[in-house]
Amino acid sequence: MKKILRTAVSGLGRIAWDFHLPQLCAHDGFHPVAVVDPCRERLAEAQARFGVSALYTDFEPMLEELHPDLVVIASPTVFHADQAIWAMRAGCDVFCDKPLALCSAEAEAMFRTARETGRKLMTYQPHRLNGEARAVRAILDSGKLGPLYLIERHLSNYARRNDWQAFRKNGGGMLLNYGSHYIDQLLYLTGSRVERVRCELRRIASLGDADDVVHALITAGSGLLFDLDINQAAALPLPEWRICGQRGAALYQDGEWKLRYFLPGALPEMKADTGLAAAGRRYPSEPIAWQTETLPELPADRDAYYRYCYDYYALDRAPFVKADEILELVRTIDACRRSAEEFRPVLV
Asked: What residue stretches are annotated with the Gfo/Idh/MocA-like oxidoreductase N-terminal domain (predicted)?
């Protein structure tokens, strides 16, 4: 008989409403038994739409009364650590939305509790599985660009953020919010560990006090550079991806990938000129037999994440997001914050 996980969801905001609850209801290995939210109107909406009968405005009474197998934490970031630790100490496994925690100290406490209680803990990092990530994986695996030296990731928009994520006291800001997605995506796709971080944070268009512009240069242990630009005050967007290797580059914009590269051995032999008189007083140049390709965006598999969750929580298989990976991510975000030295000029 198939194992069914009795599941509670804490927090009925955007991510729970648009992803977690629909996915739980669509997968026959999960049975949503409760929802928790301080807003009674949202509880009633969840009951009407998803058929969840147990409604709670407080988290701890739900744990004490229902003892679910799994708790999905989709509450604001500032509550993640406390709720995850409470749930694991109550005998529940935990699936936590990103960002896992406010800082590495909280994340380490959460995984320490998981070890002490024997419970399972994993976090939601969906950009590992979206269409862009699938395309990047295919490009990297092809080896067409040669050894990589730079990956640029640009997220551009103009949005005057005015919700809870605009405020530092709530764990808001683009470094923690979007940075949790895209730093993880870069590290996961390249299998990298972080060696050095330089970062600047700004608050430009947001109506709160948290950063809405992030520029981080992250150096991996292999020497690969990640240039992450998250700009929520940009009137004109930049290309979302630029991947540079020794033999070519890939560019992604408006749903399309463009590749330009040369084949191994295609360049004729050339020797360095150590003299100070450039031949013909010209800059060096040579014809290159470029290969070009245009690739469409690959579709995302929206159902994949909860298949991975079931494998982990019900079948005891390896977690899709491993503890050391998520701790590396949170430590990198901490390093970005330290590098920025909390310098936040305000434009008027």
From this structure: 6-123
